[in-house]
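Hi,

I'm pasting everything inline rather than attaching a file, because the server keeps stripping attachments. The sequence lines come first, and each chain or strand is labelled.
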Amino acid sequence: MTSLPPETQKKLGLVIDLDTCVGCHACATNCKEWNTGGHSAPLTDVNPYSRDPDGVWFNRIHSFEIDRGANGVGMTVNFPRSCLHCEKAACVTVCPTGASYKRAEDGIVLVNDEKCIGCKLCSWACPYGAREFDVTKGVMKKCTLCIDRIYNENLDEIDRQPACVITCPVGARHFGDLGDPGSEVSKLVVARHGRDLMPEMGYKPTNKYLPPRPRKLDPALLGAPLELKPRKTKKGEKILAWVDNLLSR
Amino acid sequence: MHPALSVIFFTTATGAGYGFLALLGIFGASGLLPSDRWMGLSGLIVALGLITTGLLSSTFHLGHPERAWRAFTQWRSSWLSREGVASVLTYIPALLLGVGWVVFQDVSGFWAVMGVLAAVLSWLTVACTAMIYRSLRPIHQWHNDFTVPSYIVLSLMSGAVLMSALTKLFSIDNGYIQGLTVITLAIGWALKSAYWNFNKKSKGLPTVNSAIGVDAGRVNVLEAPHTSDNYLLKEMGFKVARKHAERLRLLSHVMGFALPLLFSLIALFTTGATAVIASVLAWALCSLGILVERWLFFAEAKHSVTLYYGEQTV
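And the predicted assembly:
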């Protein structure tokens, strides 16, 4: 059914910290690694070792530079982009076949690749570019929130998280239930003023992004000394320096 | 958006086909067309031929055309599914109209009701096609109040141009048919001009700032996530050079509307060979002009995903 569930029991999703993300692409690489054997496998590549390589990825890492004019401070923002598992996911409702669906139990948006006719309309309906067409399989593919990891009882409990989250070397990605106000991710969103992407579209994305913290420019705010004074040289050090100089000839 | 030839052909061919079928049903039912067997047969072959080849061509861009039947199931939520259902339902009254017209040479009573029903379902199908585009919020150039009226009027217009060419070939001089052609061409031209003007001025709500969730500052791409074009850029990141767009728009103004309007006016006030040539020219030019118009409809549409690839607004 491509009608959306009126409510989901949980709102599983990601919180992505744009302040700490270093743009290393590790999340995208581990996503590709896990998911090429997972629920929507394979994540096919076309011409991977020749000119114009192309392929299906669930996660793409953009890097932007933000120019705040003469008085502001410019900064680099690394921006991982993946499915936001929206509450009002139009990619689901436009699907003519019922292949796309949003799970009532946890809010995860999935594609049934046995029903997908590859009409691509869902990718047109997604403002965020989260869905990618697999030209070799003729079906649409998208992030599954690693549904085959997070409920996988063969894994240790600590490993039951999306591949992108578990691999992030700087802890910029967090996974949890955003429908539960008491969850760690929800607290993080409140503390750091987590944001929806393109809220004006009305898709109500589940995933939240934590904006970069304001940069501290005043050394006093960082607790650094206001000026640096050269250290006085002791007498003994001068003799040692003369010996060192002599032996170095 | 990538202007896929199969989808351009699909929307123009079915647009003309349904517009023509609707006029065939209405004019047939109201007795403005002869209930002659050959009139009905040639009319329905043209209408259903355009519709059927259009619908078939729309399956060419599918990843799994053999599963196309599944697209009839989700009419509760999906405009694409609704369009599929409406397009198939239209065949029922259209073929029954054909039975009355071709077999019994009778377009009155029950057969007339079928004609009207075929017209209503034709318009519904075209409206569903338009709603597929109208409902897509990420594409501002489609998600506006011009899309549905444009599709319906242009469908009626290309149907009327075709109808006047066909009736002139059958040596029928009907003021209503010719008049409708002139009127729909004029309304279609005005509507499309207003739409192009709207596109030039209006922009969608999202910006690159809202797309990445950072309010202040000018955002530039430092590094793309990949070294060559991916699916998103090939499908949604299509760009048409402004120079080419302007030339093609001029071509569409002239071939799609101005010249057909001129030739339709000539056909309205003349008879015989002049009227036949004028109406056939109007149809041929209009068809080419509408293909160009539809190409622009796709090529000039900007998807919000391009905000992640260097666009400031869409």
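The domain at 12-221 of chain A is CATH 3.30.70.20 (Alpha-Beta Plaits).

If the labels don't parse on your end, tell me and I'll reformat.
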